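User: Quick sanity check before I run a bigger batch. Here is a single chain. Can you write out its predicted 3D structure?
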Amino acid sequence: MFILLMVFFFPAVNLVALGLGYADCLYLHDLLLREAALQKVLIINPSPPPPYSVDYSCSTDPNGPLNELIKSWSSQGLGRFVQTNNTPTQKIYIDLTEGSNNARYVHCDLYIEIRPFLALPFPLKVPAINAPVPFTITGKRVIETMPV
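Assistant: Done. Predicted structure follows.
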């Protein structure tokens, strides 16, 4: 019975918890993309345009709207149920080579490490069983407040 629990039941519980944590992180990523698409963005069009333009005003400010969203997700929302090693980090950028002058895309990369729900005593480090699982979630959305 002990072998059955250690080999099948507890790893299955860890995988279910990992799936729920991943879904919570996808929800956070969607919230970040929506908020980044609503922020006012200043795009300077030099010739030739650089491939990436970082929007420092909303993504790097510790009290900016995106970092505040991560803090509230971690303390009040679904993030309370996700066991992370550290605070999720995001990177927001605008690719000036795609889209048109009237429609640009904002990109969001979310980096997060999820710890297993139950740390099982296996001799090797196995992600999702007794070691954290790193995720990188990427996506893009049309900027809704393009400067005219």
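The helical segments are 2-38, 56-59, 65-75.

User: Great, the batch can go ahead then.
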